[in-house]
Amino acid sequence: MSTSTTAPARRPARRTVGDRWAALPRPAKIVVWVLLALFCYALPLLNPPLISTPQSDFGSVMFTVAAYGLVALGLNIVLGYAGLLDLGYVGFYAIGAYTVAVFGSLHGKLPFVLLVVLAVCITTASGLLLGAPTLRVRGDYLAIVTLGFGEIVRLVFLNTEWLNGARGITDVPRPPDLPLFDVPQLQWDGFVAYVDLGTQSTFMEFGLLDGIPYYWLALTVIIVVLVADVLLQSSRVGRAWEATREDEEAAELNGVPTFRYKLLAFAMGAFIGGLSGALYAARTGVVNPETFVIQLSVLFLAAVVIGGQGNRWGVLLGAVVVAYLPERFREFAEYRVLAFGLLLLLLANFRPQGLLPPRRARRATAAAAELAELEHSGSAGGDTKEGGIRA
Amino acid sequence: MSLETFIDLTFTGLVVGAIYGLFALGYTLVYGVLRLINFAHSEVFMWGSFAAVWVMMVLGARTGMGVLPAVGLLLLALVAAMVVSGGVALVVERVAYRRLRTKNAPPLVALISAIGMSFVLSEVMGLRDKITEWVGLSQPLAPYVERAREYVSFTNPLPSVTLFSISGFQVRSTQVIVLVAAVLMMVGLDQFVRRSRLGRGVRAVSQDPEAAALMGVDKNRVIQLTFLLGGLMAGAAAVLYLMHIGVTRFNVGFILGIKAFTAAVLGGIGNIRGALLGGLVLGLAENYGSNLLGSNWKDVVSFLLLVLVLLFRPTGILGESLGKARA
Lengths: 391, 327
What we know:
heterodimer, A: mainly alpha, two-stranded antiparallel sheet, 2 strands, B: mainly alpha, 13 helices, globular
């Protein structure tokens, strides 16, 4: 009886940030989003103290963070939405990078836009080719098969003379320039800012030294992918993924062709991984098999798991943690695999849903609490009824 | 391919395959009981290999020191590697698995936990120079910890002599020792699981954990035992691997671990005899494949074999299950 009185009182007390955000009117939300996006674009120009990386070029670091963010969004579709543990995600990243390098520098001079299109087509096809046979095996086996795939891709690049083997490929084409105007950067003397007209970034000129235009490009791609991600997750496809992840048999019995949806998730993940790899190759200008080691797969996995698999903002946060922190604290860079290993271990044991758990988990816990409450009051009601009959 | 190369490939394939099989037991035992892939098992092997290298360094092993002391040293290294590997395997069980097991976590979470554990174990070894510097022991331990990310070599005090030759191919004593020792250990383990009281507990838990618990089997004990047994075998495999290959490194476990896992799946994961068979088949396939395609493609051959087996016969050659290892 006491439960029924406390339950409604408890509800309004749990007004989270998310609830308040949901209560905002739509135009206010749009304004906030636009401001946030503008801030993200301006971040490398602002060079904020404490956040900026003194030992390495802040623009380049921000590009790396964005590339990891893109990868994390792709892996999030595979792991977070469809629940497929892919340990060979670096394979798609490598295929995307190599496609741009091979057809842009080594065996052809295709224009950049065509190269990117080709890269995502080839990675998506490789995702389908890998997924079609392997998605039928059990979940934990899938992890090992994809792990093998990641290594096979690297070894093939390493051992094929046509792909330049261990020497890698240089002179990878940059995105086409479209110089419109120059933007000066802020410099900081302690906490006093002044405009530095000496170092300017040209919108959009893709030079070797300035990482900022690449960051803008990657950020734009992230925003496009995010919009697609939101639409996709709230669509029939997103619900099918959720159902497949939670209970494959039940989903199949309810008419969800689970295999086809898993394959779709795999292909989408491969698509985004390839896109990120293509951007990476265009930024660094060189690709080398030694870049695409399995540790990279584990860092990608760490980004998704640390951030919170299934939550797109969570995995972006995870990408920031994985890509930005080692650059900010350069002196600890060699400990980063150790640190992320520890973090994976701790998170799996103490907070398996990650730093920012997805909406679904919160909704599921609320539903579970409601169910428990119902059961409790139901049984209590039964008791009184029984008592009544007896009396 | 001449007859000599063929015999060479077959023989060395069997030697390497026997090592894979011994290493694969850890995957098979844990999978048989817990239905989980122990991703950190590769690091259990790696730590055992370092234990063996260090024992030889401490005791000043060198070639040509007489057969009897050499055999003694090798046995000591074997014991040290088995103890260290067994210990690390128990640590893995305690740190990466026990808490999740009591909470009934989904297998994916357990796998991520084991991946984290694996990276911690391998990086601790790979950063041992930095870590000892922090602790302030880098001076006394210098020969053991310097160049932490490079290969370190194992001194085998026992000279390898040619025993006999088959149509031009010379059979070396080390290879025979490795092959015989690996097969003997696996037969021993198989008999232990089949005949001993503890082994019956292992089989009971893998058949039906709840019924086993009702019959008075301590499930936690059995799980610890399976990790320990797998670790002991990985330690032995590490010493045999060092006798055959001669070098180790902090990340040596990764590729070997995937191969050992392939061996386990190939023979039927959860099946002890399957691990030996799978190891031997994998060793042969790898050798023949690399001879046909070039030695650069050796690892690709074994990964492809893994993918093909999982696709077409996921239960392996002999079929899964430790429990049905016939009483």
